[in-house]
Amino acid sequence: MRKQILKLFLFLLVFFMLPNFASAANFPLEITNIKPAGTGSPAIPATNRIFRAYPGIEYNIRAAVIGGMYPFKFLLSNAPVGMIINEDTGEISWPNPQANSGTITLSVTDAENTVVTTSWAIAVSTVGFYFVDANAPTNGTGAIASPFNSLSNMIAGTGAAHLTDILYFRGGNYPLVASGTDCGGVCNSLKLTDNAPFTWIGYPNEAVNISGNNDVEIRAYQFWYDNLNFSDFNYHGIEGQGGRDFQTIRRCKFINLVAVNTGTNLNEGFIYINRGTPQGYGLIIQDNEFSYFTGGSGIGSLYDTNKALIEDNYIHDAGGIGVGSGVNSAIGIKDNDDRMTVRHNKIIIPNGVSIFGNAMNAQMAEVDDLEVAFNYFNIGANKLAHEFFERPDLPQKVLYYYRNTLVGALGFAYIDGSNCTMRNTVPLSPLGAVEVKNNILINTGTVFAGTTWILNSGLVYHPTSTANSPWLCVTDVSNLKSASTTGIIDSDGLLVNRSDVGIYGWEAANGSGDVFAPSAPSGLSVM
Question: What's the longest Cα–Cα distance across the chain?
């Protein structure tokens, strides 16, 4: 404990010595997913994965933190023997659980020395767990010594009474088998809306490959997916029901989606969260890899979420397989997403994409308090990497866009600069706070031929008319701008002038005073 306190002190000392590290926190520091069972609003159920472990199988979760001032430092106390935490990321591992944990305390400290704490307890038991093994000789009962041997066998052997149980996948290949249709009747789905466990975890250090065979998606009542590989889809990989709480996708790999029916606005993408009432709380998408998607999105479309976190994902090689009509976006944020955080992701898709909405496409009028921070977005020259825009039927909301490194132009659509309202709203909708601060913005001198986009001081705007000066409605301060990466960032997106680290862009300092940047997630296997 004394050593951990000393490390925390050194971490805070480093932060206070850094010049202009970032502006003050926009929202209170908060842990959304770890808390005592039955507490919170909404209350987290005791059946959630964070409260349960199987004897002898690694327990692995990660804290989801929003608000505060990134980066964070994490500390455990009263942890059981063998449990460790990554002090920089909040990943918690317990390699060999054998008995109940007792009450564990987690603390997180941000760069402003704000501290929040929470606690939880883990029950270690064989009750409420099933196993499936594609290499099992015959279908079993689902026990660890007698596993199911396919998804069909699993569904037949469980059912609605077992929705909250946890399913472990042993290494192997698992083709999805359709149990119904979706997407307006034009695509097939394995429907898990009213039967079978929805918490799926890949067995530690084993490659679990779940294939849609370019025909079938997963349509889930709710989901928790961890350490799984998903591939080969035509519409969606996972279609989640809106209005659900504590849904999690972590340490997964998604590859090859080719949207075949893009003209009907089916929100194609690897992850699609449908509409739901009330908003679903605490969606977590962490530590995943998304690649080779054409005509759809890597993450999105996302509807009706509250306090969602999209963090440490690696999105690359869009449009690389098959024939499609272009990439909608790497991250697609849609209606009614409040207090969403997009942080510390790495998106590199300079080839095979269209000019608009490549890295992130946000209907900003329907997103209240969106934070986009500490990301690396490399979309390439002469492309509009981000388009934040409104819909005429809903009010404009708040955007904080800071400490990102962006290769590609940053655009805002349909702002009437004469009164800072949004076009076509009835009545006219006032523009919420839009702050662009301490970013590295490359290729900002690009003017898009044949469009009505207007360049002003390195940002581009699509106004109601060219005379309305929409840039007067956006706070554009302390950004490092250049028409080229030369002398600004290297091929990995890192600052050439190291004295600017901690002031501009996505690089942050850890507790040792070193700098780090997001990398591809570890522990993923090649399919």
Answer: 72
Q: How far apart are CA 285 and CA 251, in angstroms?
A: 9
Pairing of strands 30-31, 65-66: antiparallel
Spatial distance between the Cα atoms of 310 and 360, rounded to a whole number of angstroms: 12
Cβ burial of 325 (10 Å; 0-12, 13-18, 19+) is middle
Contact by Cβ (8 Å): 306, 269: no
Cα–Cα distance between 258 and 210 in angstroms, integer? 16
pLDDT in tens, 450-497: 567 788 888 888 877 767 888 998 999 999 999 899 999 999 999 999
Q: Whats the size of the chain, residue-wise?
A: 527
303-345 pLDDT, tens digit each: 999 999 999 999 988 875 554 455 668 888 888 889 999 999 9
Which token pair is 33?
A: 């997913």
Grouping H, G, I as helix, E, B as strand and the rest as coil, residue 238 is strand
Instruction: Report the DSSP beta bridge partners of residue 216.
Output: 188
If you ran DSSP here, which 8-state letter would residue 155 be given? H
Which pLDDT score, from 0 to 100, does residue 12 have?
A: 42
Q: Are 257 and 329 in contact (CB under 8 A)?
A: no
Task: Give 9's DSSP letter.
Answer: H
Please report, as a single letter, which amino acid is at residue 258: V
Closest CA to 441 of 480, 494, 477: 480
523: left (phi over 0), alpha (psi -120 to 50) or beta: left
Residue 172: strand pairing partners: 208
| 289 Cβ neighbours under 8 A, 6+ residues apart | 252, 253, 254, 255, 313, 314, 315, 316, 520, 521, 524
C-alpha radius of gyration, the chain, whole number: 23
Q: Looking at this protein, which amino acid is placed at residue 124?
A: V
Render pLDDT for 387-445 as a digit per residue (tens, 0 to 9).
777 665 565 578 899 999 999 888 887 788 888 877 655 556 677 788 999 999 998 76
Identity (one letter) of the amino acid at 378? N
- Number of helices (H), then strands (E), belonging to the chain: the values are 2, 53
Q: pLDDT digit string (tens) for 228-269?
A: 999 999 889 999 988 899 999 999 999 999 887 655 567 888
SS3 state at 15: helix
d(CA 453, CA 455): 7
- Give the position of tokens 């079938």: 216
